[in-house]
Amino acid sequence: MSKRILVIQGNPIADSYGEALAQSYVKGAEDAGAEVRLLQLSALEFNPNLSGGYQNKLALEPDLIQAQEWIKWAEHLVFVFPIWWGSLPALMKGFIDRTFMPGFAFKYQKGKPLPDKLLKGRTARLISTMDGPHWYYRLVQGQPGHRMMKDSTLHLCGVKPVRATTIDLMNKRTDQQRNEWLSKIEQLGRSMS
After folding, report:
1. DSSP SS3 for 157
2. What is the rounded CA–CA span in Å between residue 36 and residue 38?
3. DSSP 8-state assignment for residue 171
4. Helix or strand or coil: residue 22?
5. Which terminus of the chain is more solvent-facing, meaning fewer CB atoms within 10 Å of its CB: N or C?
6. Alpha-carbon distance 70 to 119, whole Å?
């Protein structure tokens, strides 16, 4: 039976390098026999603002209902996004806010300090790009975007392990280096990790 993989591409810019990375992962995973679905967040129609919080939840738009169905379907989640101001683009953060809702991704129980993890059994990979050096993001800033995705979101919902691949210094990369990274990401897809 083939592995079911959902690739979530969170760069809001059309024809971005993030889109090319997502396509490379998809190609590698499909070549290895996986069943892959690609979710381009920039193509979805939804309000990324969780304006009512969890108390007065907005009704989910059809694109978010389908996204939740695909997340439930998947065994492995791949998030592709740029690091902007140390974290995720607003579009991806809004997607997380609106889809990883109580009752879908986690559920609080009376008398328990931590919620039940409703997305257990899934693994994840983060593929991120940034203009700055990775060492600075890791050592000085403490990787806020990665920590939010791994610990505050995915681990809290039961998704683990969560592995990360970071491509830094994007504004200094040559075309050849960018193509080499596309090949590495395609290889990651082949290994389905």
Report:
1. coil
2. 7
3. G
4. helix
5. N
6. 12
